[in-house]
Structures are given as C-alpha cells and as structure tokens.
Amino acid sequence: MSRNYYNNYMNNYCKEISKNLALKIKLERVKRSWSQEQLSEYCNLNKNTIGKIERNQMSPTIETVAQIAYAFEMDIRALLDFSNM
Questions:
Q1: DSSP class of 4
Q2: 37 domain residue, yes or no
Q3: Contact (Cβ atoms closer than 8 angstroms) between residue 71 and residue 39
C-alpha cells in the first residue's frame, strides 16, 4: 500500500467519523428538545462551538466529546457508536 493511498484513506475515514459525530450530536440534542444554547450550558462549552461541531465545521477534541456525552448522560462509547444511524 502506498503512503499516498494510506493518507487518502485515513483522510476520508476521519471525515466520515467527523460527519457522523456531528450528526449524532445534533440528533441527540434534538431528541431531548434542547437548543444549542442549552447543550452548551450543560456541557460548559460555548454555543458557537456547539454550532460549529454540529455543522461539521470543527472537529471536537476527545475531551469535548466526553463533555457532550456527559451532558447527554451517555457513555462516550455510546456517543461514538454510529451503527444505529
């Protein structure tokens, strides 16, 4: 496998994970009838940060993902499970 092929594969793989995470966060928030502002307060993040994550304009750190999972009262693994989407 060439390095270029590997880099392209990983880039696409990471983009897909980021896209799925953005959608999952939005779905979980909407399921709870929370606004972005409410979610931002529950996980101690800026409202603009939540918006950027949901629009997939920003990739959250693992710490941010953990904060969001905690706000949803979910295990971080459940938030990162995209099998039911």
A1: H
A2: yes
A3: yes
User: For 14-39, what is each residue's pLDDT tens digit?
Assistant: 999 999 999 999 999 999 999 999 99
Q: Which domain holds residue 26?
A: 3-79
- Mean pLDDT, the chain, whole residue set: 95
Region of residue 15 (left: phi > 0; alpha: psi -120 to 50; beta: else): alpha
Token pair, residue 51, equals 């918006």
Report yes or no on 84 lying in a domain.
no
Is there a domain that residue 73 lies in? yes
Domain count, the chain: 1
**Model pTM?**
0.89
Round to whole Å and give the CA distance between 57 and 18.
9
Is 52 a domain residue?
A: yes
